[in-house]
Amino acid sequence: MIISLLLAAMTQTVTPPAPPPGGPAGLRRADANGDGIVTRAEAMAQANGMFARMDSNHDGKVTPEERRAAMEAMRAERRGDGIGRGGRGRGMGGGMGSGGDRELTLEQSRQMAANRFDRLDTNKDGRLDAAELAAARPGPRPPRGDDAPPPPAQ
């Protein structure tokens, strides 16, 4: 009898935990209360925290050098190796003009975060649900602003 119970317990299918909601990891981390929904307030709090982390001298501006150093530190932290990799991040401030060559103010950072949230909030309910987060998965981005290619010749 005991052997039968042990065998039955060993052969039961265990359902793995549900994967985290789709979407960029940064947006998932913005979900402060872990309910699978990112509210506008959570997204803005994340943007404020990101700006504070990048503004290493606390002067209210993020220079291209501060941005690169912060992105490198975050990459190393995610890898857990403490060693940075080259390359430019596309996260907060990644679109600061041609190659991120301008300073970013807190107000600009907040506006960028609000614009991104509004673009992703397709049903305009002030919340990013699992479907909206999944649709926001990172991939190749078309160039914007100063980085846009010239229009095709006619």
From TrEMBL:
SUPFAM superfamilies: EF-hand. Transmembrane segments: none annotated. It holds the Pfam family EF-hand_5. Residues 52-154 are annotated as: Disordered. Coiled coil: none annotated. It comes from the Bacteria. Residues 83-99 have a biased composition (Gly residues). Residues 42-77, 108-143 form the EF-hand domain. Residues 55-82, 116-130 have a biased composition (Basic and acidic residues). InterPro entries: EF-hand-dom_pair, EF_Hand_1_Ca_BS, EF_hand_dom. Gene3D superfamilies: EF-hand. This is EF-hand domain-containing protein. It comes from Sphingomonas mollis.
